[in-house]
Amino acid sequence: MRAHEAGALHAEAGHRGPSWLREPADVNALEPRLWARNVERGPDGVLSVAGVPVDAIAREFGTPSYVMDEDDFRARARTFAQAFDAAFQPLCGGADVYYAGKAFLSIASVRWIAEEGLNLDVCTGGELAVALRAGFPPGRIGMHGNNKSAAELTRALDVGVDRIVVDSAAEISRLAALARERGVRARVLLRITVGVEAHTHEYIATAHEDQKFGFSLAGGAAADAAAAILAEPSLELLGLHSHIGSQIFDTSAFEVAARRTLGLHAAIREQHGVELPELDLGGGYGIAYTTKDDPMPPAELAAGMAEIVGHECAAFGVPVPRISVEPGRAIAGPAGFTLYEAGTVKQVALDAGAFRTYVAVDGGMSDNIRTALYDADYSCTLASRRSDTRPVLARVVGKHCESGDIVVKDEFLPADVRPGDLIAVPGTGAYCRSLATTYNHVPRPPVVAVADGKARLIVRRETEDDLLRLDVG
To answer: Among 425, 338, 325, which residue's Cα sits nearest to residue 100?
Structure first.
């Protein structure tokens, strides 16, 4: 479903809040699963991350700011890498985890990923440039994208990117020609669409046939593409790639996807006599944005995926290929939150004596467009003090000239929330800075990493001078 321009006020849940949202017994309490592991509330009610109070972060770096718990980010990366490697060790000697650069990418985060032993997935020349600037080994980079330019493919070949995920017949021909010109053999995965409908938003479900990514299994397009790659001496087909969507909370859809993907894998073996050494099952594992979300721990995900792959490979009578997965937002997302300052607070009368408290903050859809784009739900909390007042149903909105400029559609905040309060929104470590814009000429916020009691800037705040520098008059 598409989001109404004016947000959840006109959605099915109505103005009394969605059915899953419960009034808290203590409006100061934090729901642990929504926050990075080093976020806590002190006796004075002030939130801190890794020992640094958020009011100190606001004074030094301003608001809005994206705040990243570096230890949490690293720990999630490490946990995914260890869990999947251990689960697949008996089947194929382990598994590779690719961090999705599109979720959140900076020189610092790339270095964290490198140090924690993960591989990196990029999908544009710009993302590749960040990875190279950070010194990430090209032999651990995979390159996605449904419309890679000749320049992007050329650069990937020249720097030695390990694998390129091909997405169209035109790209197969383009990449083969570029590889021939350079006298190299490009290692590729073939992206396929398996016709599995993941239970997620229509814009982030990527495995149904009627969409822009990959080759459909239906009608033989994927099989024909595999044959075309195998016929090109300048291309090496490593395996197949399947990604069914994002914000997925169980492994049921992966079972069907794995079965259909391995069906083609087995057919290629039978028809061409080629044992493809790899298989990428994508990922898109979900995180807890609100109390209604209940993501699986990485170890359970890995065990479930290993059981599925082992069973399906046995059914097709093929050896288990080396498995790759892409956790997506599950690493960066929970590690970050956005810190805002409230500017205006107003109560809007509704029907039957009901009202809603609108809290306008100094950011909005320019720093978090997911609510407007995907009808996404977020939580929030008063971050700068403790309150003993009753909870009221509130909506956190931005400063932009759009009625759909909503950050948090429904959440309980203290009745005495007021201008100058700091508001923290968890779960914004992924796809917020990456999707940020300068709408209304509002400069993009900085990214502040916190570890061991110290906060440091890893992406500086954009300034009005930055905006004007691009305007040549």
So the answer is: 325
Q: What is the mean pLDDT of residues 160-187?
A: 97
Contact assessment for residue 242 and residue 207, using Cβ atoms and an 8 Å cutoff: yes
123 is an active site residue: no
CB atoms within 10 A of CB 378: 24
**Final residue before a domain boundary, out of 330, 345, 367:** 330
Long-range contacts of 54-61 (CB under 8 A, 24+ apart): 54/339, 54/383, 54/384, 54/422, 54/424, 55/384, 55/422, 56/455, 57/339, 57/448, 57/450, 57/455, 58/339, 58/341, 58/384, 58/422, 60/455, 61/446, 61/448, 61/455, 61/457, 61/461
Closest among 202, 191, 83, 87 to 147, alpha carbons compared: 191
For CA atoms 418, 422, 426, 431, the dihedral sign is: positive
pLDDT (tens digit, 9 = 90+) per residue, 384-400?
Answer: 999 999 999 999 999 99
CATH number at residue 27: 2.40.37.10
Give the C-alpha separation, 292 to 250, whole Å.
14
Q: Report pLDDT for 195.
A: 81
Residues 339 and 396 in one domain: yes
Segments forming the whole domain that contains residue 350: 7-62+335-469
389 token code pair: 């007042």
- Same domain? For 214 and 242 the reply is yes
Domain count along the chain: 2
Q: What average pLDDT score do residues 375-385 get? A: 97
Predicted confidence (pLDDT) per residue in 191-206, tens digit: 999 887 655 434 334 4
Residue 1 domain-assigned? no
Q: Are residues 354 and 324 in the same domain?
A: no
What confidence tens digit (pLDDT) does each residue in 30-78 have? 999 999 999 999 999 999 999 999 999 999 999 999 999 999 999 999 9
Give bridge partners of residue 190 from the DSSP assignment: 166, 240
Q: Same domain for 17 and 100?
A: no
Output the pLDDT for position 337. Answer: 98
Of 92, 123, 313, 401, which one is the catalytic site residue? 401
CATH of the domain at 301: 3.20.20.10
Query: Model-level pTM?
Result: 0.93
Question: What integer pLDDT is reported at residue 15 of this predicted model?
Answer: 53
